[in-house]
Structures are given as C-alpha cells and as structure tokens.
Amino acid sequence: MAFFGFKELDRLSEVDMAIYRFFTENVEKVPYMRVRDIATEAHVSNSSVMRFIHKLGYDSFPEFKVSFRSEQRRSQTNDHEISFITAENFPPDIYEKIELIADKMEQSDQIIFCGIGSSGALAEYAARQTAAVGFNSFCVKDPFYPLITQLKNTSNNLLITFSVSGKTIELIEMLNNFVNDEDVTLVAVTADPSSQLALMSRYVLCYSTSQERLAKYYDLTTQVPAMYLIEQLISTARRLAVEQDHESI
Questions:
Q1: What is the CATH T-level fold of the domain 87-248, as seen in this structure?
Q2: 100 C-beta neighbours (distance < 10 Å), count
C-alpha cells in the first residue's frame, strides 16, 4: 500500500494520526531514521510506530522505508515534469503570433537566427532545423559578426533573435543597424516583453520563466519554453509551405 495519497484516514487512531503527520511533515529525513527515533520525535512508543507500519500494509520497517523513499522520488519527479512547462508559460495569443511569424518565415527570402550563449545554441538549432525543412537560413552567434555587410544589397530578410532577458548590450547594438531597415524584419523571442529587444522588434514571441544565475555570470535559466516556440514555428511554417504548394497546383 502506498503511503503518499493514503485515503483511509478514518481508520487511524489519534496515535496513528500523530505518526502520519510526523511522516508527512518530515518526508526528507524519515527514510534515514530508526523506529525509536521516529517514536521519540512523534512522542509515541516504538510499538505504536510498528503497528502503524503494519496497518499501511508493510511487513517490516525496512520495507516501508524503501517504499517511502521510492514514492518520494517519484512524487518529486512528477511534480517537476508537470510544472516544467505549461500553458501558463505563454500569453493567451501565443499561437496567433506563431502563425503570423511562421507566415513571415514562409514568405522570406532568408531567415537569420541570432543569439549569444545558451540562446546562441538555440539559434543554431533553429537554423539547422529550419534549413532541414527547406528554408534558406543560417545562424549568427557572434554579436560582432559583420551581418550588416552580409545583408547589404539583399531584401526580404527575417532576423529572429533569442534572448531571455532581452537586454544583452552586444545584441542590442547589432540589431540597432536594422531597426529602420525595410529589408529586414526583426523578431524577438524573449522572457521580457518590455525589454529593449522586444521594443525594437516588429514581432515578439514572449514567454515567462524564472531566471536563474550562478555566481552572477552563469545563466542557468531553462530554455525549454523558447525551444517549444522554435518547434512550433518550424512546424507551422512547414505546414503553411505545404498548403501554399497545394494551392499552386
């Protein structure tokens, strides 16, 4: 019988309830305690603890501890997976925006994905996947790359930039070259819709996530929401391209 989610509380005596509450309030340390330690801290007898263990359906205390620890780990893993990314990570109109930008991708002559650090890795992945489904795309991870020179005398470019904060100075300076360029449409993928990156872009795909840093310099913020947006963009753009091909037949 599982301990977590035990529903037959009406079968428990006052002493059993005291032990049950102790377990639920000390889930981290119970697997490492002895029967007498639990009895002492729960203010019950050793025999009361063992009767409670047997009432839960376990033959021995070691069997209970193994099961308790296993349940605890599964519970923590499931909670993490469920909350890792949900609809709450995105604004209500996110799919309308994805459809709009995917349509721009399908119409563009060239798609440039840009980012630095972990966002640069995302940009590289996006460029590779986009090229794999038939779009003309490449990635820029160096903010000092002479992109303005490369895009000179070109038109109908879509520049998609990834940045969690939307405040990376080097990216902002590079994109400033294209703010008023009619041949380059700027798209921001960021967790901050009020950031400078978002404000200077024509289209914004935003998401919410807790930003985490280690020693102020190492960004440990999850990129799963941004990765989800990449997959949705590519899938939608591919669908639109197929629909366009069917219409032209």
A1: Rossmann fold (3.40.50)
A2: 15
The architecture (CATH level 2) of 9-84 comes to: Orthogonal Bundle (1.10)
Tell me how far apart the alpha carbons of residues 32 and 201 are, in angstroms, rounded to a whole number: 55
Q: What number of other Cβ atoms are within 10 A of residue 111's Cβ?
A: 25
Report pLDDT digits (tens) over 1-54.
445 555 566 677 888 888 888 888 888 888 888 999 999 999 999 999 999 888
Is-contact 53 61, C-beta < 8 A? Answer: yes
Q: What is the pLDDT of residue 213?
A: 65
How far is 105 from 241, CA to CA, in rounded Å?
9
Torsion, Cα of 197, 202, 206, 210 (10° steps): 10
The residues spanned by each domain of the chain are 9-84, 87-248
Task: Answer whether 9-84 and 87-248 agree in fold.
Answer: no
168-216 tens-digit pLDDT: 999 999 999 999 999 999 999 999 999 999 999 999 999 988 766 665 5
